[in-house]
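Reviewer 2 asked us to include a model.

Predict the structure of this chain.
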Amino acid sequence: QVQLVESGGGLVQAGGSLRLSCVASGSTLDRINIGWFRQVPGKEREALSCVASVDGSIRYANDGLGRFTISRDSSRNTVYLQLNNLKPEDTAVYYCAAERNYASVCYTHRDVYGYWGQGTRVTVSS
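Predicted model (structure tokens):
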């Protein structure tokens, strides 16, 4: 069983930055793809980015909005999502998710991910 715990969310002013963390347990990162998503109440969960297990290959949905960067630290079994130049429309709950897959490619389709964290809330004030 893979468990994921997100952290790093909070209240930030427009133009600010946050770094979200996703700590995985139950598997090492070289055996799971990790994706980042976000969801606004009443809307579908939106894919942001993912990192592949074998070699850390990265994929962005919507070019990462030009402001988001995914990275991972295998020594900490942690995947990060750096959010820069935040805008009020970035306000959402941010989730990380895991797919058991030994691969050098990952996908930003939420349906492939079987394990989800509880989310961390990001609020951007104008």
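Residues 33 and 52 are 5 Å apart (CA to CA). The mean pLDDT is 95. We have added this to the supplementary material.
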